[in-house]
Amino acid sequence: MNSLIEEAGEPAATLRSAPAAPGPLTLHLMQARDMARWDAFVQTCPEATFFHRSGWRRAIEQAFGHRTWFYFVEQDGQIQGVLPLAQVKSRLFGHTLAALPFCVYGGIAANTPQARAMLDAAALKLAAELGAGHLEYRGIRAAHGDDPAWQRKPIYVTFRKPISASHEDNMNAIPRKQRAMVRKGIKCGLRGEVDQTVDRFFTAYATSVHRLGTPVFPKKWFRLLKEEFGDDCEVRVILRGDELVAGVLSFFFRGEVLPYYGGGMDVAREVAGNDFMYWNLMEAAVERGCRSFDFGRSKLGTGAYDFKHNWGFPAEPLEYEYRLQAAEAVPENNPLNPKYRMFIKLWRKLPLGLANQLGPHIVKHLG
Q: What Pfam families has UniProt attached to this entry (predicted)?
């Protein structure tokens, strides 16, 4: 009996050939020619974040001089997974290979388990070759489940929440006491203004972190971020008349706004400058089409944690993972470590100008 194709008058030779089997997965390091398609993958991969974008490579290398490895896995000419890594090596703070230093999210972003496994193996191999103390993934979710080879520490949480297209609804969603602080800033005549340079923002930021006893990032770092990410990196200052009150540098990604660095002058406390700043940013983000507000990470037990919680944002634990290599334990490089308390007290007493000169030499090793 003839086949149906033959009965219909079609020669068997015209049958469509079966789809070719998928090609092999191959591992690569990102080159300049790969950056556009790297970012195209990040834009669509559900696991990817703003901190997976290719621009972090240049910013980290040029601001701090750290070595980076931006791995990707490819199959049939299509990227299937990415893993940006950078090395931070310090006698005082340890030797880390992380995805990604100076970023709150990171780790592997992949479409398939096979691509993830290949990137994982590449990172472990590199960490061993470098003699790193540990490998760190800053993922929102743990990628290795209960694997005992990977440690987790409940240090950080993040605060993310949907926002409405209605300013009135967003205002009403703020708890009453915090809403009163926002209204105070409005009554004080505060206003927001977008800058194309980081100068005024840096003044507010540097003043604020000095008050907290924290080393300052170099101004060059913020300038590089603005250069790399363009309109997706917004610099906003809050003013009372012509007086600088506060400033915030924010990232925009897939309909979400993330205020990342911020700070206020001394006057900010008197006029609820920080409260108004985040409200002003939320209003602007809504007009830009954002429907999610990411308040960023904070350490448990800190004032920043309480501030964000008071805005009605739920705390979501960040499941960072650590794989020990040469080190016996993961370093505790955070202000809650008791051994840094004296340092914080002394740093607050430094003149602001001196703190701004010394801070970048310290903070580059903290990651």
A: Acetyltransf_6 (PF13480)
